[in-house]
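Why do we care about 3D structure at all? Because function follows from shape, and shape follows, mostly, from sequence. That is the central idea of this module. The next example makes it concrete: a single protein chain, its amino acid sequence, and then its structure expressed as tokens.
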Amino acid sequence: MQLKVLTICDRYNWGGASKVAKTIHEQLIERGHECLYLYGYDKKGLPNKKFPKGVITAGYLPSPPLNFLSYNLVGKNLFPGNHRKLSNLIKNADIVHIHNVHDYGFRYNQLVELINQHDKPVVITCHDSWYISGRCSLPKECTIWRQGCNKCPHMDYYHRSVFDFAKRERVRKLAAFKSIRRLKFVSPSRWLAAYVREVYGEDICTIISNSVDTSLFRFDPDKQEDLDVPNFPSLLLVANDFADKMKIDVQLINLLINKGFRLHIVGAHSPYTGKNVVNHGTLSGTEISILMSRCHIHLFMSKLDNQPLVVIESLCSGMMQLTFRSAAIMSMDIDADCIFLEDVTANELLEYLHSKVLQLEISSGARLARSQKYRARFNKDRMIESYIAEYYKLINL
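And the structure:
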């Protein structure tokens, strides 16, 4: 049975959530399904005419910048998308697949109203904690959502707000999504799935791991060139924008640089310099995949992510991970391929990077075996078939 699938996500191919949404959208098309990808806005809040056919926006041009202002003021989007266009798109779909809608492109209550009006089944992929909180999507260690986000103590958490309406907004948000007759939540991680079940019910959330393009992200010895000082493994750090300090440990990066670590940095606005620092700027996925084959250890510092794509990409490229014991990392079952920052001092880490033990871990043979293991685990075919199975279950209810 051919399905008509409407994917809804604030962005297209920018950030981890939209990259997962894009992969699912493209793989569904490859399997013969009729798909549309509805995004809220692109850079500068404008539609992007260069996006592929079937990738469309249903917002009014002023809505994203106005919602940016409203969210930063009162903690929610106040300006809707094109009601008639949204209604027609939802009406014509067999199933609606929602990803992130908490940036500035959509009003969730408008989407839910139209979904209920047309009685459409919905899959929601939770890429962060927004669906269980009153306002923020990255609550860090905060669990005030369990008490209904009463008197939010972290108004600066993403997305930040001047006035605190989180308690009232959480009641409305949960009531809206619970009103959908045929609804399934999906989480890529066990830890977030447990939180979603705590809020929405035990049977409402299933776990489907994220995936990446394993034909692109794989260890290729032919791509290896000498990027390093002799016998010294190189670290790779990837971020969208280093001006955003939310997922970056500035003190740690400066410490590593001062200790003489060889650091390759990918992303916009990197302020880091030094004789052992190489700033590559913003790179394409293909360019990052080449760099991942050339570098040895992936440095991942965020404690806020759900199931980070860049970690999956680097594992599929055969890289060791230098990281913290965050909920995301610990739920991925990758301990054997991690060096945990909590366990070593900077001097101990420096000594380890010179050791014969690590030389074995980053040898071509070890990297190839690691790459094959994780490419099998994070295969996109497995992810897509799992989602399609959930679609059919909901449609047949």
